[in-house]
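Sharing a chain and its predicted structure for anyone who wants a worked example. Both blocks are below, sequence first, C-alpha cells second.
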Amino acid sequence: MTGLKGKTALVTGGAQGIGRAIAMMLAAEGADVAVSDINLAKAEETAAEVAALGVRSVAIEGNVADSASAQAMVDKAVEALGKLDILVNNAGITRDNLIMRMKEDDWDLVLDINLKGSFNCAKAALKHMSKARTGRIINIASIVGAMGNAGQANYVASKAGLIGLTKTIAREYSSRNITANAVAPGFIDTAMTQALPDKVREELMKQIPMGRLGSSEDVAGAVAFLASDAASYVTGQVIHVNGGMYM
C-alpha cells in the first residue's frame, strides 16, 4: 500500500463492527475519516478513536435509505473534510427468515438500507467525485451475494444487487478516474457469530479451508487496498475475503 495521507473518506455504518474497523484502518493509513451512522452517539465514540490516530474525523448522523439524508450526509462530510476521495458503503442490516415466512416489511427494509442506501450514497458522492475527476467507491457485499443462503432471501438479494450496482458504477465512471469495487466478506468473527452455539461455529469452520472465521481487520485491509493508489487500475471487481469458503 502507498498510504492514504491527504485523502478523505466517508464510512457508512461506521460506528461499530466491520464499519469501525474500516474507519480505523483508513485512518491508520493516513486518511481523514467521516464516520456516519444512524446511531450518532456510537459514531461520535468511533470518530474520537479515529481522531486519536492523528487524523481529522467527524461523526455524522444519517439514514442511508432516505435519499435526502444520504445527500446531506455526503455534503456534511465534504464540508467538514474539504473533499471526498473515498466512499465506503458499509451500512447494512439483516432480517432473516425462510421465504414463506418472510414478511414483506422485512424484505423492503433490508433492500432499502442495503441496496437502495448504497445507491443513494453513491449518487450523492459521485456529484463531488465527478467534479474532482477522481474517487473510490467501495461497497461491502457478502459471500452470500455470490453463493446464496437459505433463510436470507432479502439479504442475499440486496448483496447480489450491490455487486451489480458496483459494476455499473465502474462502467459509467471509469472515464472520470473513479473506481468502484466490492468487498465480499465471508463469515466474520463479530457479535453475531460469537452468539452462535459452539457446535454451530465448529460446523461453520469446517466449511472454511483456512479453518477460522475472518476478522473485521481482514475486511478492512481489503478496503484499504482498494482505496489506495496501488489499486488505481482495479475497478468493477469483487474481492472475496472468506478464507477460501467460496472460490
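Comments welcome. The beta strands are 8-12, 32-37, 57-61, 86-89, 135-140, 178-185, 238-241.
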